[in-house]
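Give me structure tokens for this 225-residue protein.
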Amino acid sequence: MDTNIPPSPSIGRLILDTVRRMFVSGVLVIVPVIATVVILNFLFHTVDGILSPVFERFLGYSIPGMGLVATLLLILLAGALARNVIGSRLFSIGELLFVRTPLVRTVYSAAKQLVEAVTGSQRKVFQRAVLVEYPRKGIYAIGFAAAETDVRSGPLNGKMVSIFVPSTPTPVTGFVIMVPADEVYELDISTEDVIKMLVSGGIATPAELRRLPTTGKPAPEAEAT
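Here you go.
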């Protein structure tokens, strides 16, 4: 008789393992749903809150979603006007008021450049995923290359790249760092994959990160853990 047969797990252990697996499966199902609902709810109330108070003041009561509908209609109307000669000139005159007002000018110019970078002729700006050595040597952060500039200040003398480093797990926020152009590794990875990687806290990291062949020195390869 073989005395080396391992003892069978107790009923309590089996129940505990079953509950644990059920809990993990439930988390994988529920958490993404909750996160999606929370984000969409935040966006809905933010946009709806822009014009909803105006309708509430005139109507005397609140209609959920009316502010959102009105905002979308206002955007469509503005787009229609901007596409004809008269409307385009009117917007140009109105834009001068923003551009020539000291404090408003700074905010308006930055906001306009951001919108143009995402939706306009500079659409590809934030689609350049890059890897930079940050916050210290040997540690790398993934971000998006925004623009290049020549720096002439003391020991800094050369091209620098503005890098937007998104936060985790909310990539819509982040910070900007300046990195020497020859230390920026442009990656062959889509914006969607970068967002997945950030939102998942690094779990959805691609099995391999490769540099684009058009960049300078090769980027360090990284494997998912």
